[in-house]
Amino acid sequence: xxxxxxxANTLQTGVGFMMSGLIGIMFGFFLEQAGFGSSxxxxxxFYFRDMAVIKVxxxxxxxxxxxxxxxxxxxxxxxxxxxxxxxxWLAQGIGGLLFGxxxxxxxxxxGTAVVGLASAKLDALVFIIGVVLGSxxxxxxxxxxxxxxxxTHGGTIFLWDVFNLSAHSLVFLVCVAxxxxxxxxxxxxxxxxxxxxxxxxxxxxxxxxxxVMLVMAALLFIIPRQTPPQPxxxxxxxxxxxxxxxxxxxxDPIDLARMLMEGSPDLTLVDxxxxxxxxxxNLRGAIHLPLEALAEEAxxxxxxxxxxxxYSNGTTHAAQAWLELRHWxxxxxxxxxxGVLGFWRECLTPPSLDGFVDEDTSKKQYEAFMAR
Length: 372
Description:
The protein is of the alpha/beta class.
């Protein structure tokens, strides 16, 4: 079965880093070939003199989108093999605005700045220094802006769901929009630069490329959808069992308490118990997501970055939820060992009673507290 580094959980291995490096080198090479090693060319789009940024980046989006749809349609990969980013409306809106302002002022974006630095551009070096300093400031100021960073979480959103279209229909419409946008960009360039009309050779090349793109998108409608071959039960279980064996599936109460006291910004604590139990007692900062609502609300409420720690009264329900989330693509989910009972015993029992309160006594104390 074909898979991705994300689905194979090898992004942080030597193979993952090697592949990332090779892809980065190729990305930089093609950016340089497109002329993006020049800040003058990059900023030309803001003055309508050179629309290459829109054309090149939009072309990359189209190629990736059509190629991805073919891989899924032909059954070569599953949609779960790709990690979609969650949407944070306000944070991404403000971040996009700041990114645009920095692009205009600096003449670079982070990727093209690295390309410019490889070409010994001094302004690219200055820009990268600014990026590093800005990252440090962001890290130090994060507690002040954490609510903005994590707020207005929209979950994983797909455009075909937003517009109530099939994936094939959306791909085709985006390709049509690309042809229109490319044509408009060319007209703007010619008018601003007062350039003469392109040669028939150039026009034929562009028309051919547009036709090929539309035909490739249209063919998706007639290619029968194939289901990716499923791994055998033994292979499917082996990855999970390896995580369990290596203690990668759980978090001990003491470690969780330490993260809570340190205010770990990447921690999402999920209480799977009933509404009544959650109201009576819950761990600080936990969100309430009952087990029966997990399938319906996980996409909107649980991030796929950072660490998601699931807990119930014990371990069983949390372990079941962990297994489902792992099947759905949450590779960052973990289980609180022994649940609330374990946290009560390990972290909330006074140190002076260590050695005097056994597991049964601790459980009775917790049950008495919850019954009040």
